[in-house]
Design goal:
Acyl_CoA_acyltransferase; single chain; alpha+beta; 5 helices; protein-N-terminal-alanine acetyltransferase activity; protein N-terminal-serine acetyltransferase activity; seven-stranded mixed sheet; GNAT_dom; Ribosomal_N-acetyltransferase; Aminopeptidase
Length: 175
């Protein structure tokens, strides 16, 4: 298991992050575009600000906690979040991305562990899931390194530009 070579700070997105967020997305299309349908060459600061407004609404309504991943000096490493479903039979779900130039440094794993810690402060949460396209080995590796156990492969839970794909489902239980 690789150690995180830098400290990862999770902070809510703010409008002043929009230009750098856009740059991080566009400079990472090689690794984002296969898996994230929102990533495009046209992703600009206005799209980033719309996303930030959505994250603030989700936080205010208790539906999610979405964060930017930052170095101590404010450099954007990526993003991560956890969604809290309104129905108790549906598990909270964690998602993440890391800009291409910062991948393979343990950043996503550190972010997932921080989100798990946050999730398990809620007494009603006993288990969290991570979904990853079956072919997305990097995301699947993060899930495993964060303590996820593969529970199933199901078709169609994730839809990419190419259409529905097999989805690896990982569960992480409270310890």
């Amino acid at each position: 298991m690789k150690a995180c070579i830098m400290k990862v700070n999770l902070r809510p997105w703010q409008d002043e992050h929009a230009a750098e967020f856009s740059h991080a997305v566009i400079s990472s299309l090689d690794t984002l575009k296969p898996w994230m349908i929102w990533a495009s060459e046209d992703f600009g600061a206005s799209e980033a600000k719309r996303w930030f407004a959505i994250t603030h609404h989700l936080r205010a309504t208790g539906q999610a906690e979405e964060f930017g991943l930052f170095t101590d000096d404010g450099y954007i490493l990526g993003g991560a979040g956890i969604r809290f479903p309104q129905q108790m039979e549906i598990l909270p779900s964690i998602g993440y991305w890391v800009r291409s130039s910062e991948q393979r440094k343990g950043i996503a794993t550190a972010a997932v562990r921080a989100l798990l810690e946050m999730a398990f402060t809620r007494p009603e949460i006993e288990k969290v899931e991570i979904l990853a396209a079956e072919a997305n080995i990097a995301s699947r590796t993060v899930a495993i390194r964060a303590g996820g156990e593969l529970t199933a492969i199901r078709y169609g839970l994730i839809v990419l530009d190419s259409g529905p794909v097999n989805t690896a489902i990982y569960h992480i239980s409270r310890r």
